[in-house]
Amino acid sequence: MLLPIDPLADIGRRAWVPCPSCDDARDCVPCGERRHCPDHWRYLISHTGSLLHLQCPGCTHHWDHESGFGATRGPSPGGRA
Ligand SMILES: [Zn+2]
Ligand SMILES: [Zn+2]
To answer: Which ligand does the CA of 41 lie closest to?
Structure first.
């Protein structure tokens, strides 16, 4: 069952994160190289600190993604040599 696209979704605010539901970027070369793929991106609905609230435009799956950017809680993973 598909959810409606969130009314806050804005194509000007996108994030390149693999969708845990449809995994549509699995075999994609640019995505595999973590480039900004023109085909596989997610709506960045909003964010809370470093936690991104995303929606997949393909399968409309809605989920939270911990980006690790700008985090103020916990140790930063692998940030220092
Ligand atoms: Zn999806
Ligand atoms: Zn891709």
So the answer is: 2
